[in-house]
Amino acid sequence: MSMKLGTEIPGTSAEGNITTIWVPTIKNIKAPTIAELEAGTDISNYVMLGGWSFEPSQDTVSDQRENSIQDFGAPGRKSAGDISIEVIDNTNTEHKDQNEAVTLMAEGNAGYIVRRRGMATDAPLAAGQKLTVVSVICGEKQVINPDANTMIRSKIPLFAKAPGWESETAVIADPSKG
């Protein structure tokens, strides 16, 4: 299939179309179940716009052959890079009882950050949807100094741990096929 020059490609706004869930346990990060995801806490309303930082990278394995003037490569080790999430922090405020993101991601807590893009946040989870799933342990909360016209917020550093991550390659399991 080839695309003709000038073909208009539709796009989907990110506004309101990203869901972030803190999930305590997932048996298979390649195929989380709806039950596992629903046992988590939707923290989407706490995450600041642009507050999710996850930029996996991959090294190159050098493949230099003595009979060639070209250098080749192969996929090497992967790194999750610096992972963090910036969230509303209601510590000491009149809204202190609504501080789930900070509470769930306290230093030393382990779990999974699950992100779904491209669908309205209030759209139900369903089999076949693609997700990013990252197994993490939380670091020490970093208070962000406020700028003018901003909310009180903090940054939670996250560290990838086994079993690792699936970068929009996890698919919600179909319960009829399990």
Keywords:
178 residues; mainly beta; 8-stranded antiparallel sheet; 2 helices; 10 strands; 43% strand; globular
Quick recap:
The chain is mainly beta and 178 residues long. The chain has helices at residues 34-38, 100-104, and strands at residues 18-23, 41-42, 47-53, 57-64, 71-79, 83-88, 110-117, 130-138, 142-143, 153-171. The longest helix is centred in the N-terminal third of the chain and has 5 residues, at 34-38.
Give an overview in words.
With 178 residues, this protein is mainly beta. It has 2 helices and 10 strands; from the N terminus they run βαβββββαββββ. Strands 1, 2, 3, 6, 7, 8, 9 and 10 form an 8-stranded antiparallel β-sheet that branches. The model has no long low-confidence stretch (mean pLDDT 94).
Number of helices: 2
Q: Which radius of gyration do the C-alpha atoms yield? A: 20 Å
- The class by helix and strand makeup works out as mainly beta
Strand content: 35-45%
What are the segments in which pLDDT stays under 50 over at least 5 consecutive residues?
none
